[in-house]
Amino acid sequence: MVILLMAAPLAAEKPAAGTAQLPAADAVRIREFYRLAAAIQDRIWPHWSATPAPLLLVTNETEFLTHFPEPPAGFTKVGDDLWARPRQFPTGLAAAFPAFGLPSVIVIGEPANTGTKTSTPWLFAALHEHFHQLQDAQPGYFKATAALGLARGDTSGMWMLNYPLPYADAALGVAFSHLRDTLLAALREPDAAKFAALAAAYKAERKQFFARLSPDDRTYLSFQIWKEGIAQYTQVVAAEAAAGYQPTAAFAALPDAKPFATYGQKMRAKTLEALQHVELATAKRIAVYPFGCAEGFFLDRLDPKWKDGYFRHPFTLDPYFE
User: Fold this and answer.
1) Quick check: helix, strand or coil at residue 32?
2) CB 37 within 8 A of CB 53
3) What is the maximum span of the chain, computed from C-alpha positions, in angstroms?
4) Listed residue (42, 40, 69, 39) closest to 53, CA to CA
5) What percentage of the chain carries pLDDT values higher than 90?
6) What is the pTM of this model?
7) For residue 111, how many C-alpha atoms fall within 13 Å in the half-sphere facing its CB?
8) Helices (runs of H) and strands (runs of E) counted in the chain
């Protein structure tokens, strides 16, 4: 069954006296997220709209939950499809995970408390996390993730952030920088024939780079590129897909709302600029965001149908480079 991500009137019911109320600007942003997702998501990933998108907004004092099938204990209903509880998560969080069991929930703070800072970037950060919900919803995803064998006793999931990849290894850093530059050269080449030659060179160099890694290190880096890099790619492509999107008057009236027309172009340019300067030793895991995003751009040129196999080959992009 396809679930349409249509916005519910988040404060349609009058809350009981003394209960928390969702700030008006937050209600506007949440409604716009569901409206924007419904407009563009299936143009980016087939059937993305079938993935539930519950969202937990973390404010300074209160957490507000919407679009969750059965609100867990501890929440009080404060509106139509809106529940609240005292804050438990950090206000700067932007993540998607099964906080209350499946389906995974987007847990995100208000723009001022997160890296997004303003309303328009917040929308696309939420879409980034919604893509993680699509990943999490794949059959057997969590069992297969555990089967990678990288947790090493960690049951909290923090191994995904803290895995000890040898980021500081000087030779690995030099090899990564060269691989990064080869990828950028291919992406910047407008001529199709020259791009094909650069793409072949990149494929060969990518194999050499990953051959430097131990089996577990290779599995971890491949997983991060597949998971976070392509989520970042999806965030940028979503912004580009929204170039012609007309937001509601309420969202456009927010003082920090940015125009949609050129935002995606700016995001792509900013991502490639970030990649140009990223160093493995200093960026560590964060390097996978611009790098994996750029590999998504590369695959768009190499094989426009590459997404058809993305979920058939989980946790690695290697099949595209063989």
Assistant:
1) helix
2) yes
3) 68
4) 69
5) 92
6) 0.93
7) 20
8) 12, 6
